[in-house]
Amino acid sequence: MPKMPYGAIASAKIPLVLWFMVLIGGVLWSGGNAQNSNAPSKAVSEQLVAAINDLARNLGQQLGTSSGGNSSKTELFSPVSIGSMMFLMLRIANRETRNELLNALQLKQYTVSGSGNIPKNFARLLKEFTHDIAGKGILEELPGWHTSSSCYPKMEGADYEDDDDDDKYLDEPIQPNVVQLANGIFLQNGLINNTKFVKLAKELYEAQIKEVNFKEQPRAARVSINHWVNESTRGRIDEILSDDLSTSTQMVIANALYFKATWETFFNEPQFTRPQTFFPDGEDQPSVMVPTMFASGCFPYYASPELNARIMAFPYRNRTTSMYIILPNDSNRAKVRQLQAKLSSTELDQLIARMRLQKALVQFPRMHATNTYDLKHALQKLGVKALFDRTKNNLKLAAPYNRTATVGRLRKLFVSEMVHKIDLDVNERGTEGGAVTITAMERSLPPVNFRVKGPFILAIRHDPTKMLLFYGAVFDPS
After folding, report:
1. What is the number of structural domains in the chain?
2. Distance CA 131, CA 136 (A)
3. What is the pTM of this model?
4. Predicted confidence (pLDDT) per residue in 406-430, tens digit
């Protein structure tokens, strides 16, 4: 698919489309790191993907604690957005900060010089991810269910064609998936003194770097950052900064992820979505009413006795990306917390590898979630502390105070704020203006009834790279 310009986003109200926007903003800091010339490799790429997905589990536990513990409705965030920001920070981090970031990412082996090329491998993964490239990619692996197009057996002499292809019911052509990952770096005028980083940030991380004047024009700086945010989400998120920043601010980093895709198997028309009971903390506790969508067809599915849970996937049109719903049996808040702790990157891969297409009836809540997190607090809990310490020289980016001196005294740069914001909308319909008719042709009673009426874990995964676009617990989708 052709590459979309950064900032290409559509209206928030489009149905049967998953709209996912993520913003990581308000990062005040700077830093750097050398790299070797190793070419991208499957082994290194697998380690980086595992780092992002294990970060999802660890951050999920920390964000759950900080967002209200037993009162939060949703705890969704974007691992690939946060991970891409952390990998970018490695480029300019001094040793102590770099080691803490690598430890938080569980990549201690990269503290040794020459142990692998993170930037080139991550850049390759980002290319496959943001260009929505189909196929096995650098990881050379896809879930087994990708090889099957239908769960209905071929019947010799049957007088029907496979009706799994719903394209005929669309008034307009199916649009390809749209994936955008954009990094915006905003620096105090005259601060940057690392042209190599500027070049690498653009080439490897697709980052826009812009100078602003926090010191003398803090309002104009805030407006500039919010304008970038607004453009990057086409108005879906108006702003990430509601107040002017301190005049001592030196650097702000914002990261925006946008994903839009249509379902491979459609849910019902919106007028047929109806309220159903949902139990945020188990069926022995009070319930809420949530608008619930319905679907019938072939879905990747596995019932895990080891985890006492079931997993179902909802693939998007070209099967590069899927929404995985992991539902504990007799689900409640405590069971979801326990499942989160067990769901490492390896465990998630093994769970998905066991999935097979099965006929199913599905009931799933229509939902719209927005979450804002203080990543500074969460990362500190994971051991990233030097980055936020104003007494230390953490990052290799700024010019010295005395530019005329042979050796100038370096500025001590640190992160004073780090905010992560998401907006996620799951609707019934496809592309804008396209009316969809769902036709369920039941040839036999589906063996699986997947009714999501209690807390669950949601994972939106780009299957060729295995990277998690969105992840987290949903306790109450109302």
Report:
1. 2
2. 14
3. 0.84
4. 444 556 677 777 778 788 888 775 3
Whether residues 64 and 135 fall in one domain: yes
Cβ contacts of 59 within 8 Å, gap of 6 or more = 77, 79, 82, 378, 382
CA distances from 460 to 7, 15, 238, 414 (A): 21, 18, 24, 32
Do 188 and 111 lie in one domain? The reply is yes
Q: Let me know if residue 315 belongs to a domain.
A: yes
270-277 long-range contacts (CB < 8 A, ≥24 apart) are: 270/15, 270/427, 270/428, 270/429, 273/366, 273/428, 276/363, 276/365, 276/453, 277/453
Residues 301, 381 within the same domain: no
pLDDT tens digit sequence for 437-460? 333 334 455 689 999 999 999 999
CATH, residue 222:
3.30.497.10
Sign of the CA dihedral with 148 first, then 151, 156, and 157 last: negative
Do residues 16 and 432 make contact, with C-beta atoms less than 8 angstroms apart? no
d(CA 324, CA 471): 9
317 and 349 co-located in one domain: yes
Residue that has been written with the tokens 């939106």 in this structure: 460
Considering only CA atoms, which of 17, 2, 109, 60 is closest in space to residue 459? 60
Q: Residue 351 sits in a domain of what CATH number?
A: 2.30.39.10
Distance CA 232, CA 306 (A): 42
